[in-house]
Amino acid sequence: MNIYKYAMKMEKDSENYYRELANQTEDIGLQNILKMLTDEEVRHYNIIEQMMKSKASAELAETDILKKVNNIFIKIKGKNLVFNFDLPQINLYRKAQEIEEKSYKFYIEMSDKVEIESQRKVFLKLAGEEKKHMFLLENLVEFVSRPETWIENAEFNHLDDY
Fold it and tell me: What CDD domains does the annotation carry (predicted)?
């Protein structure tokens, strides 16, 4: 399988996983976060598909997902909601974290293998976005593991600074 098809499969699998997770949670804020991650994976898929088809330069626009997620968490905090997450659900978010880490490593590795400079830059940008997703999911895991203390954690307030 070539690197583009493999990358597209990874992105499609991630998209489906986030969609499944969004359907499993009842909280609208968490659903929105997971839907944003779904949309990010669709964007990644599309840019990789474009690179594969044209072999020409492609460009990936910057994302502000961490800022948007930060705003959602602020809204959740303002509602003083009580969450009761069980270990299996937390493990689902940890699995998503592992998927993002695998994608990050893949894109770093592939950036050294492509010959077209613009595509190398896209792979490095994709790696950067996957790293943002890893950071987001790390915070999400911490949030669902212990929401009372996480909301007060100073790191939460810096999601958009990442």
Answer: Ferritin_like_AB
SS3 content of the chain, % helix, strand, coil (to 5): 80, 0, 20
- The CA–CA distances, whole Å, from 5 to 8, 52, 61 equal 5, 8, 21
Q: Locate 53 and state its tokens.
A: 């088809």
Residue 56 in tokens: 């020409």
Q: What is the pTM (predicted TM-score) of this model?
A: 0.81
Q: Which domains does the chain have, with CATH numbers?
A: 3-161 (1.20.1260.10)
Tens digit of each residue's pLDDT (9 = 90 or more) over 107-162: 999 999 888 888 889 999 999 999 999 999 988 888 777 654 555 554 555 555 55
CA distance 89 to 1: 33
Contact yes or no for 32/21 (Cβ under 8 A)? no
